[in-house]
Amino acid sequence: MKSSNTVWHHPQIDMSVREKILKQKSVLLWFTGLSGSGKSTLANAVEAKLAEKHYATYLLDGDNIRHGLDGDLGFSQKDRKENIRRVGELATLFVDAGLIVLTAFISPFRGDRQEIRKLLPNGKFIEIFTDCPVETCEKRDVKGLYQKARRGEITDFTGVSSPYETPVNPEISVNTKRSDLEECVDKIIKYLEKHKIIEVS
Amino acid sequence: MKSSNTVWHHPQIDMSVREKILKQKSVLLWFTGLSGSGKSTLANAVEAKLAEKHYATYLLDGDNIRHGLDGDLGFSQKDRKENIRRVGELATLFVDAGLIVLTAFISPFRGDRQEIRKLLPNGKFIEIFTDCPVETCEKRDVKGLYQKARRGEITDFTGVSSPYETPVNPEISVNTKRSDLEECVDKIIKYLEKHKIIEVS
Fold it and tell me: Which of A32, A172, B110, B119 is deepest in the core (most CB within 10 A)?
């Protein structure tokens, strides 16, 4: 750049500046649980509730990630691990941008989730366990994936042929077998209010 | 999810809803040009100006991408192409989130930039060419990269051992040899005002 005659200072725009502009605190709401446990449904409903309250949000799930950013990845154990790693990095950027970010991925391994927690400042990673027995998830089987896994057409399927490591100390746990959608959403919203992430309305 | 007794409708939150919440139009300001042409400096200054006007922005450049999301990529021609592909996909998600997104990458190939343009709705991809002769960029050589390229320590270096394909019809072109930083920022801000992407202040 040609040097200017005037010295022109401009501030570095970082997360805290962006949070001020957006008038909110950025966090990552990381939904984890079995296929069919209700992660996406719940994340979508929480996003809608936050949008109603005029918070700036973004939801990352298989729909907007798998075909684009992770278009080069398959479904092997290694590729699934890389998928979760990228989602974590991506979510971290959105938190840095000042948004309330929601992700809905099975993310079965404690170690992988722990890695993502470590990427973020304290208090910004909120693990939400959508707790539901595998029998119930399998009975729902909305996408027919459990059936395929039982027939061996999908290998390393979480809950059938690959383990799900239950969160030890998640910030929020919702039982999607016993509770209905509205109760689950309420529990999450109340947590966010209690921890001053959003204002009590 | 246990089915609820009450039917609970919630709206799908998409780009247009998010733009309304943020009270702005989302776009991608794609800075392209040689190493040392001033992409990052200019993108940072434009972001600061937009933040001053309370717009919600996010800047993607080598600093926040290379080490995280693209941590698995090297600097081969193939990896650089994959890098730009991922940046494009990523930027598209941020536009979808309602933000004014700025990217600063050499992105030397017309075809690669065209692919990213096609990912976005009409009018949302704004190509900004930081036009500067390679001799001037090489004279600046802030990071010592041209020297390394001349010594053969970096291969496929744009402008030295790999071509830069000049944008044919960029939305904005700034000559960073003749103009100083403030003039370049002004030109971009005026474009955004004229095209009603931001309000005239």
Answer: A32
